[in-house]
Amino acid sequence: MSGLFKAISRQRSQVDMVKSGREPILAQYSKRQLDKSGVYGNLSPMEENLLADLWERFLDALDTPLAAVPSDAIVLPIEYDDEADRKRAQHTQDTAPFEVFEGCMFNETVADKCTQLGIVSEAGADGELVPPYESQISDETLGSALWAVVREDHPDVLLLRFLRARKWDVDKAFKMAVAAIKWRVHERVEEIIWYGDIHNDASLMWKGVSYAHGKDRLGQPIVWSGSCLHHQKDQSYPQLKRYLIWMMETLRTLLVTPVERVCLIMDLSDHSNANMDWPFVKTFIKFLEAYYPECLGLCVVYNGPWWFSGV
Asked: To the nearest 10°, the Cα dihedral for 117, 237, 1, 231?
């Protein structure tokens, strides 16, 4: 578990960058006042110039094929084969189905469950709950992919995340941002957003493994996560990864400048080894570090076991 907390510590070190002069997060909580340094609308002249330099890099490369644009390497959190994992999960569902949680069967989606319960109000001509996916990325250039990534964010807010994460080094921020764009294309994030929660694993949604509710002292949305509800065997890795991406993209819609981060409360009440899922932990940490930088304001671990005191 020490790796989890070291990674969270690295994320917080980015949040509390000394170079930007930002006040430590705990001091902000004590004062109930959010430090807006380095965020959109509160930039110093130097930070504005660095943002302009980063935009210049992007504008110069907009018509370049995305694959040809220099970037950081896309590192997958764990070695996996999505297609093979999906086939194994489908085989289990077809040949040895089992209940995961309150009537939710293994590999059953929210769409499946809604149809069973008769709570779907409308459906398309072929019974689909959402119109077939249509990509908004018109070609394979960086420019087309970039605007699909911006979505609800202000474009400057998006690029500033990568600048702060790389301590205002324009070249490093550019390569990090392009890698994140390439990763989104690889993981078909746009399609996940299109279909929303209807393709999520039903048991993950029904159990309420994580959800957003309320705001903290700084106005940051609070994400609650109860580890005792999670078991690795209850869902396939592709479904777990999809759920995590869907959750992060959903939380993006709750962030309004100058509040650009969330507060995560990890409730470890009744946590046991059976709830530990290292592939999920590695995936979550990698997403925060590389693909959703500057999104975590504070992580609170509540009611951890005695052995957490040594971490």
From this structure: 30
The CA radius of gyration of the chain, in Å to the nearest whole number, is 20
Q: Mean of the per-residue pLDDT values for the chain?
A: 87
Rounded Cα–Cα distance for residues 283 and 78 (Å): 7
Helix count (H) and strand count (E) of the chain?
A: 12, 6
Cα separation values, 181 from 67, 154, 214, 303, Å: 10, 16, 30, 37
**How does pLDDT run across 212-249, given as a tens digit for each residue?**
999 999 999 999 999 999 999 999 999 999 999 999 99
CA triple 40-44-49, angle to 5 deg: 85
What SS3 state is found at 114?
helix
CA–CA dist 191, 186 (Å, integer): 11
Place of tokens 């949604």: 205
- The strand pairing partners of 146, in sequence order, are none
Burial class (CB in 10 A: 0-12, 13-18, 19+), 37: middle
| Cα within 13 Å of Cα(204), Cβ side | 27
Q: Rounded to 5 degrees, what angle do the CA atoms 270, 275, 278 make?
A: 140
The whole-angstrom separation of Cα 307 and Cα 304 is 8
Phi, psi of 208, deg, nearest 5: 70, 45
By three-state DSSP, how is residue 194 classified? helix
At 116, give phi and psi (nearest 5°). -60, -40
Give the per-residue SS3 of 8-77: HHHHHHHHCCCCCCCCCHHHHHHHCCCCCCCCCCCCCHHHHHHHHHHHHHHHHHCCCEHHHCCCCCCCCC
Contact 14, 176 (CB under 8 A): no
Q: Using CA atoms, how far apart are residues 239 and 295, in angstroms rounded to an integer?
A: 22
Q: Which amino acid is at 143?
A: G
Q: What is the pTM of this model?
A: 0.88
